[in-house]
Structures are given as C-alpha cells and as structure tokens.
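Teaching note: in complex prediction, the entire set of molecules is handled at once rather than each chain in isolation. The prompt given to students was simply: 'Predict the structure of this complex.' The entities are:
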Amino acid sequence: MRSGSLARLIAILSLLLSPTGAPAQAPAPPDILVSRQLAEAEGLNVGDVVRLATDPAGSRARVFRIAGVYEPTPDPSRLGQVPRAVRMHLPDLLEMTRPTDVPAGAEYVGFVNVALVDPDDAQQFASDVNARLPGVLALPSGEAAGSAAPFRVLERFHLAIAVVTIIAATVFLLALTIMLVDERRETVGVLRLIGLPVRRILVQILLEGLIVAGVGAVFGLVLALLSEQLINQFFQWRYDTALVFVRITRDVAFTCVSIAVPLGAAATVFASWALLRRGGLRLARR
Amino acid sequence: MNAVGFAWRSLVRQPARAALGILGVAAVGALLFDMLLLSRGLIVSMQDLLDRGGWDVRVSAGDLPGSGLRVANAIEVADAIAALSSVQAALVVRSARAEIDTVSGMPLRVSFQGVAIRSTDGGSRLRAPWTILRGRDADTADEIVVDEQIATRAGLLPGSAVMIRASCVADLEALPAMQLRVVGIAEFPFQTTSESTAGGTLNALKIACGGNVGDEADLILVTSRGDADGTAAAIRALLPEIRAATNSEVVGRLQQTGFTYFRQISSVLTTVTVSFAVLLITVLLTVSVNQRLGEIAALRALGFSRMRVVKDVLSESALIVGIGGLLSLPLGLLLASGLDRILKAMPGIPVALHFFVFEGQALAIHVGLLTATAIIAALYPMRIVSKLPIAATLRDEVIG
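The expected output is the structure of the full assembly:
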C-alpha cells in the first residue's frame, strides 16, 4: 500500500511567505516543495525558510524550508488557475490543519492511493474494502478518474465543430470542382469525340481528384504540424501551464487523410458526372 | 438594370454553383455565429443566473462562492450584515451531503441546502435560492422541498414523508435517518445535471444532521437596498476576514479563471472561420470571373464602365455572403442548441447555465464580419475585372 507521503496544499492554505531567520539552536525546519508558479510569483528560492499558516491571520504558523521547486502535474480541470501550491509531508500537514480539540492521530485524510500487487484485482479489492470498512468508498482508478469527464465532453464538442467544418468545406469543394470541371468541358468533349469512353475519362478525373486531395491533405497536415507548436506555446504561456493543448498524433493524421482524400476525390467525380452524361459534341461546342 | 440585379442574374444563370456557394457561406456563417455566441455566452448566462435570484451580493470565506471554505459564526455574521443600513436582507446558505431512503432500498445521494433569512425589516419575505414548481416552500423545521429528480426517483409528492440522513460535518458520520415532510417540488438554478438537491430551513438541515451542523455557512446571500457595490464595500469594511462580491464581481472572477478556455477557443475558431470564408469566396469569385472574362470584356465594349463591372463583382460577392449569412442565423441557432447540449454534459455545470446565449452585440459582430468577408473576398476578382484589357480579352476569349 502506498500512503500519501506527500500531501498537496492548494490555494486553500493561506501562505505567509515571509522568509524568516531560524534560531541557531533550533532544529532544522521540515522541508516543503513549492510550485514553480508560486516560487516565481513570490520570489522564492531553494533553501529559503518560510512560515505557513492555515488562516490569513497567521495563527499557528509553522516554519518550513524550501527543499525544491516543482512543476505541478498539468491538471486540465484547473485550467486558468495558476497553481500556487506547496507540497509537504503528511504529518506536517496534519499538524497544521488539526483542530485544537482533535487529538493527534484522530485526523482523517481525503484519499489514500493503493498500489495492488495485481492491478487486475482492483474491482475485487474495492468491493472488499467497501464491505469491510463502512464509511469508506473504494473505487478502481478507472472509475475514480472523474476529472477526465470534462475532457470527454470537450472532445465531443470539438468533434461536432469538426463535423460542421467538414460539411462547410465539402460544400465549398463541390462548388469549386463544379466550376473547375466546367472549365474543362471542351477538353472532355474532345476526349469523348476521339473515342475515349466515359469510364476511362472518369477514372482519369478520379485519379486527378485523388492526387489533388492527397496533396491538399499533406499540405493541411504540414500546416497543422507547424501550427501545433505555435498553438501550444501560446496557450501554455496564456495559462502558465505545461499542458499540451494540440497534439497531432498518427491517429489524428490518419483520420484527417482518410476523410480528406476520399472526400476530395468523391467531390471531383460527383461534379464531373453531370458533365460526362452530356454528348461529346455538345461538350466540345463553344 | 442596377449592379445588384445584374449580379443576381449571374447567380441564377448558374444555380448549382451559386447554391453551393451560398450553402457553404451558410455553414461557415453558422459556425462563426456560434463562436460569437460562445465568446460571451457563459458570462451573460452566469450573470443572468446570479441576478435572477434577487440577491446582489455574495459573501463567502473563499475567493469564489462554492470554493469549499465556510464562513464561521454564520448567524452572527449574517445578523451583522443585515444590520447594515444598505442591506435589505441576508440569507445564510449551508449545504450538506444527504441520503434519502427510497422504496427500492438504494439510498438516493443528494445535496441538502438549509437556509435562514436575517432581516431587520421583518416583514420582507425574500425568496430562497430555488423556485417552487409545485406545492409550496418549506417554512418549518420538519418541511423540505425536493427537485424533480428526487421526486421521480423516490416517488415523492407534496405531502409525502421522507427519511433523510445528512452529514453536515464529515462524510464519515453515520447518523440515524430523520423523518421530514415534502411540501413542494422545486427547481434549483445552480444544481448541476448530475446532482439532486433538497432544500429547507437551516433548522430542517440541523434536524437532518442530528443537530451536528455547527454554526457555519457555505454562502451568505445579501440583497441590498439598491447599491450593490456600496453594500459589498460596507460588508468588506465590517468583516475584513470574509469575501463579499457583487454578482458582477463574481462573474468577473469566473471570467478570469474557469471561462477563459471558451473565450480563447471562440477567438481561435472565429479567426479560422473568417479566414476560411474569405479564402473560399475569393476562390469562387475568382474562378467565376475568370470563366466570364470574355463576357465582361464584351460588356465593357458595349459601354459598361470599369466601375460598373467592379460593382457587379462586389454585388455578386455581397449576394452570396448576404443570402448565406441570412441562412446562417437559423442554422447557427440550431447548431448552438446542439453544441450547448454537448457542453452541458460537463460535470459541475448548473442546469440553468448556457454556453451559447443570443446577444444583439454578437449579431452585430456577425454582420460586420460577414460584410468585411464579402468586401475582402471580392477585392482580388474586382482587381481582375478593373484591369481587364478589353480588346485583347475579346480577341482571346471570343475570336480565338
């Protein structure tokens, strides 16, 4: 079992971040870690000694030494909130937050993370804990990951936006291909008059469409890859986070190409079909 | 025939391409309109939600109401606030987790809000932070109101008795169930989609918690006598250890934290959408103009001025964008309602909050952006027709 040896204090904990001088004979203050954002905002450095308290008045303040500055694990559910946080050992946290009328050892913690020998036993282990310890709720990590829910919703939202964008792009693409095919009606008419069957011309148009759509898709991917870095840098700066906002994965690239190429080719063939149904003479006539 | 009439005939002559162009603009315009509705939707909706209750100052222990910190000595604090000359009334709100027994045996997990009003002009009866749909409000310590979800799942009606077990201090409490009476079915505007809520007086909550409630409040709602800013300042001066914020200030703080993502994505998608529209309409018009160079040269030869053919191209662009833009409004509203449903599945979002809210300002920006799109998209094709050499074009396009 892995107990929470380090506890995190988030914004709830009021900080009295005045560097203080420890008396020469006093024992060394306990160590804490401070988030990069907090260290930057308050000008804190490794080795500084600070006082922390749980209320703005600074009552029951305790002295700590900054042992390190850490980059908080990016938490999408806290986007927009600069993580001004410190991490300390659990006994220190309990010592600070325990009400005066609660004896030591009678505190409770919010969560205990458990690492099982066999992770496949998670469901059974949770059931056993729930049966044996009333008042404690045990959940396998997968079910406890409620914080992912907003991002599943955002994923659906982005998908909906993507669908609308694809519809709009398809309509424009059709309009463009109709115009481009119309521009080539004379050429197609001549090809028909010299004996090329409709199927042969259609295959040629399909190939052309595939090449154009393929080149377009590759260009789009290159543009996306170039803008990926730019977008991430902007939003990471904007929200002061290490979160990655845009990631062009192989799956994403494959999905884009597998939609764009057939769509482009289909639009070309669809636009050409109406033209090819006309007679060669009519097409070639100016 | 004026330029618009002439452009209309040009479009009608090639209905397929015109219809596709207009449909494309409608789809892009719908997306653009939605992004504009999204950019301020949450803020407008949240402001409306906060204002709707009639409470114009919110007092809490944390920077934002609902941060988890509680106001200590809540009744004393509320009395002190209510005694201020600018305050009409103060409402102490305390929430606790509770379980309601159901027929099936599976308890229903709910949030229980207990409220207590403090006012110096005793006659005023201000609304609790919920709206009664059926029955009446809970007035005494043995009465509660429940939301539709609880009523349906626990089979409750106004007049039903309910066994409730609440935990006011810690979730680990194992308190005995207490019997209360449901007197009304209510709607809780700040309730999230995944949540069920019951409400009653603070005394009802105390009973449900077996008296183990403590004198703390999650929130104190204050109604001023008209000057919300002055009242918030007076409360801050009176009680410097707690936070008092007007509804606008609460929205402002949310704007800086939780709502920024949607503003950013709205800005990015607005930019992308407008660029996309400009690019595609430019290509459509350019190809269209290139196909009609001979015709345009012939018109110039017949006496149409350079300005006139430029106006024709601009009018064609305006017609495509204008008709597409008009169609984009109903399409956009339809799409917004679908996207709103998707986003409202996000946990922790109040049922009454909307991501997409119609505003006159959004419509004005939409019209402005589409107008700019029509003009910018027409610039290059207008340049082509304005610089068209009449004789050479006629020779190439007509004779050749």
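Point out the following to students. Residues 147-284 of chain A form one domain. Chain A touches chain B at residues 11-12, 56-57, 79-81, 108, 134-136, 146, 149-150, 153-154, 156-157, 160-161, 164-165, 167-169, 171-172, 174-176, 178-180, 182-183, 231, 235, 238-239 (CB under 8 Å).
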